[in-house]
Amino acid sequence: xxxxxxxxxxxxxxxxxxxxxxxxxxxxxxxxxxxxxxxxxxxxxxxxxxxxxxxxxxxxxxxxxxxxxxxxxxxxxxxxxxxxxxxxxxxxxxxxxxxxxxxxxxxxxxxxxxxxxxxxxxxxxxxxxxxxxxxxxxxxxxxxxxxxxxxxxxxxxxxxxxxxxxxxxxxxxxxxxxxxxxxxxxxx
Length: 188
Ligand SMILES: [Zn+2]
Ligand SMILES: [Zn+2]
Known about the structure:
The protein has helices at residues 7-12, 119-129, 173-187; strands at 3-5, 17-24, 35-47, 52-65, 72-87, 109-110, 115-117. The chain is an alpha+beta fold. It has a five-stranded mixed sheet with strand order 2-3-4-5-6. A two-stranded antiparallel ribbon has the order 1-7. A hairpin with a 6-residue loop joins strand 4 and strand 5. Residues 144, 146-147, 149, 155, 158 line the site of one zinc ion. One zinc ion binds at residues 66, 68-69, 71, 135-136, 140.
């Protein structure tokens, strides 16, 4: 969870800043982010006349499936975001505050405990920064079209089919099947 209490900053007035580092396990209940380990980053919070402007950069490791061989592909996701949070409670009086008219539904807010919560915007940012074509290694050779195993040092080359295969009689629908069965036995 990446959240900060900003009550001091709200009291200090416009122009005041805070720099905070974070290194936190991140909630990912449906594993849509494929996170491996915590999310780390830095937040610079700036008190504006309206609220708190949060500039955040972060990085997180994710485990995806290699686009070529389907093995694990570990990638680093990095992102940067700026978001202004508006107060819902007056820091001096403790009374609820009216949001400016025209405030969007997804406007990030400072909650009644004067906390800002970066989880949702970080989640969105990780999602949009996940690599589309993750690779287990840049030179991943992919899968063998013949046996479906991953190509590479552990994969043994297949013997070239010799030409002594029984010729198929095209007029006999079972001949082709017989050849297939025969070849199957041979490779077993
Ligand atoms: Zn791969
Ligand atoms: Zn193969």
